[in-house]
């Protein structure tokens, strides 16, 4: 999908499918907040300040169970640990941007914006740092405000989207659809496979720690397979990274 | 169920907000322009394919919507989405194919 559209337009386009994810889940968070006794302002503040769906649901659930505040924070932050990996992964691409831009990117780093951005950066190795920043902003300009609006709407209306629409599956489908085109090399495929195996094996671990085990294990797998493929190909052949 | 205290709620909102921002900012903000070692870059190239499949695999195999029990329409929809995305390299085509599979099977089997 190499396109001549400007980075910001590509970002906007790539962000669009996530509307089907963000609206139902934002509304659901609003509804669950209202049920837990939060008013609309509190629910909205939660989504604006934290801007991480899964961690928000975890924190709210533990708050309603009157778990000590320190444990609520620790558990919800554990759920969000993968954000640090996203941060590291984005650094080679947008590291040279001004600090204020990097701060905004950090705030808007969620699963969806990260997945869009890293796929686009690999598709467009010729992009400048500013192109990459513009793409990122294009991708989040639709998704993130909708997350706030949907949260407020859910808290206000008090009901979400009917189950019959099976929108619970919007998250898996959008992420799987993005993963398909990312499986460019044997190293990528091996990493993805290891991720699936480890995340299912370690699903019993609390606080999403199974995902962390899967992520680290799969990154090591990808790196090792890349090295092995390089050695096998011999020194004159380009590395998978250069062969894009 | 007693109400959540206002203090606890706002401590969690602000603390989680700051903590989440710190996690997101730690590398992008602090390393910035500095060159990272080759071994680190070699691992970071695989972050997306290491995290995203692990994020969705349990949701496909044990969907929360069915109370965690295996659901044929969801598993097949996941497989179709992956196959179309892999072959066509077109994210939108994969989403449409996956959603169509899911709705068709839910309708036929439901």
Automatic annotation (TrEMBL), chain B:
Cross-referenced Pfam families: AzlD (PF05437)
Protein name in the entry: Membrane protein
Segments passing through the bilayer: 12-32, 44-65, 91-109
Keyword terms of this UniProt record: Membrane, Transmembrane, Transmembrane helix
Top-rank taxon: Bacteria
InterPro entries: Brnchd-chn_aa_trnsp_AzlD
Organism encoding this protein: Thalassovita autumnalis
